[in-house]
Amino acid sequence: MAYKETLTKPFLNDVKDIKKDKALLERLHKKMDEILANPEHYPAKKYELKGKRAAHIGSFVIVFEIKGDEVIFWKFKRHDFAYE
Q1: What is the pTM of this model?
Q2: Count of CB atoms within 10 A of residue 22's CB?
Q3: Separation of first and last alpha carbons in the chain
Q4: Which residues does 44 contact at the CB level (< 8 Å), separation at least 6?
Q5: Cβ atoms within 10 A of the Cβ of 1, count?
Q6: pLDDT tens digit string along 29-39?
Q7: Of 16, 44, 56, 72, which one has the greatest count of Cβ atoms within 10 A?
Q8: Structural contact between residues 69 and 3, judged by C-beta atoms closer than 8 angstroms
Q9: pLDDT at 28
């Protein structure tokens, strides 16, 4: 199944903060492609993030959610702040 991506304002703001780090930005786009190809691969979270999923890129975390044929990207933050 092909998934459509939706980028939220908080996600875009988080990405804007790392625009100067080209290597990290490239890794982010690669991981987003992997997520869109198979979002079910990443385990669902519990508690405050119930219904959402997360993927790691080094010390950063992408928080996303699957709704039908759509993947909604919510956050891209350092691990320390991603689960707040």
Answers
A1: 0.90
A2: 9
A3: 31
A4: 50, 51, 52, 53
A5: 8
A6: 999 999 999 99
A7: 72
A8: yes
A9: 96
The answer to whether the CB of 33 falls within 8 A of the CB of 24 is no
Contacts of 19 (CB under 8 A, 6+ apart): 25
How does DSSP classify residue 21? Answer: -
3-class DSSP state for residue 9?
Answer: helix
- Per CATH, domain 4-82 is 3.30.2310.20: yes
Give the mean pLDDT of 1-29: 93
Question: What is the amino acid identity at position 12?
Answer: L
SS3 4: strand
Going from N- to C-terminal start, the domains of the chain cover 4-82
Kind and range of the H or E element at 5? Answer: strand 4-7
Tokens of 57: 């890129």
